[in-house]
């Protein structure tokens, strides 16, 4: 009887091991194929630029290709929704910006929960923004810009990359700060908006340094200020909004990487390891510097810190957006 009991126990243990081992082995071998990184905005924009830099470096560490796919629309919510409902196997991830924290307040019917439907992997960077205008815009300084738009608010056009985009949020705060409503022209991404600014079809916008630095340095657009407390090294001659006459005006765009909720912890840990390696890659650091940004601090490149930051940003933006009455269907 004792021998039969031991045989039964051993058999049950083998059955459990047989069921668990393949999954464990699959996770430990991850990744075994290419990974899709969804960018919820159009190609050529600032978030797309960050994603492609990070994806290339992470691919080297993972020894599998990360393929960037642009799924734009609805202020980034379409791409995010696709990842929220993807298989939680680590082969579909999302690189999103500050819009993950503003979407809960901006959209009355959001098809996902920004906190509950995702597994955070780590923060990537924080990007300053710049207030820029077409090259032949009359105003020469930020004070002159503010005076001009107040006097000509029905004639001045402000471009943004669509509801929920960083340029939309920055513009919303700018209009609130100067107590003036302007004609806004939404585009399907920052790339098209910048093209029309370069072509003189719109007057001004507020956009990330990752999208404006090369245009500013090339003398193709006017720049009035950066939106951070300190000046940006790559644009050292450009004053902060505070210095230029708009006290308390600060906004920066942060990026983070997400996986669908339920993605196994070993997979999250492996992606986090690759992200940390990418942010220490000298090529990435130098390219970030050229674009006016820098990698996130080490203590922020963890799933836990990323989640805490996301929750804090949701709490910060919720009352601001509701007060402005900036809602989307």
Automatic annotation (TrEMBL):
Signal peptide: 1-23
Keyword set, alphabetical order: Signal
Coiled-coil annotated residue ranges, if any: none
Pfam families: TctC
Top-level taxon of origin: Bacteria
InterPro entries per UniProt: BUG (IPR005064), Bug_dom1 (IPR042100)
Family: Belongs to the UPF0065 (bug) family.
Descriptive protein name: Tripartite tricarboxylate transporter substrate binding protein BugD
Gene source species: Noviherbaspirillum sedimenti
């Amino acid at each position: 009887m004792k021998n039969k009991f031991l045989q039964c126990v051993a058999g049950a243990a083998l059955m459990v091991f047989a069921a668990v081992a393949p999954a464990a082995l699959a996770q430990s071998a991850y990744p075994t194929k290419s990974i899709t990184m969804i960018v919820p905005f159009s190609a050529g924009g600032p978030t797309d630029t960050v994603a492609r830099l990070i994806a290339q470096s992470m691919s080297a560490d993972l020894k599998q290709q990360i393929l960037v796919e642009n799924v734009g629309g609805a202020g980034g919510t379409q791409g995010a929704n696709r990842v929220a409902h993807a298989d939680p196997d680590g082969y579909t991830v999302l690189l999103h910006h500050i819009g993950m924290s503003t979407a809960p307040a901006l959209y009355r019917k959001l098809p996902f929960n920004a906190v509950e439907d995702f597994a955070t992997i780590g923060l990537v960077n924080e990007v300053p923004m710049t207030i820029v205008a077409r090259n032949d815009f009359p105003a020469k300084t930020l004070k002159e810009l503010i005076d001009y738009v107040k006097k000509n608010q029905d004639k001045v056009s402000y471009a943004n990359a669509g509801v929920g985009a960083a340029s939309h949020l920055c513009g919303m705060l700018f209009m609130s700060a100067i107590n003036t409503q302007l004609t806004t022209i939404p585009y399907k991404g920052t790339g098209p908006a910048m093209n029309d600014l370069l072509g003189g079809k719109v007057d001004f916008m507020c956009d990330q340094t990752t999208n404006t630095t090369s245009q500013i340095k090339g003398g193709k657009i006017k720049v009035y200020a950066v939106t951070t407390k300190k000046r940006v090294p790559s644009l050292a001659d450009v004053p902060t909004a505070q210095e230029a006459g708009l006290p308390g005006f600060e906004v920066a765009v942060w990026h983070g990487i997400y996986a669908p909720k339920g993605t196994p912890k070993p997979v999250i840990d492996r992606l986090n390891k690759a992200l940390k390696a990418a942010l220490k890659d000298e090529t990435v650091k130098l390219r970030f510097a050229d674009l006016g940004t820098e990698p996130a601090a080490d203590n922020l490149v963890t799933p836990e810190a990323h989640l805490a930051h996301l929750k804090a940003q949701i709490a910060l933006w919720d009352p601001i957006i509701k007060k402005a009455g900036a809602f989307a269907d």
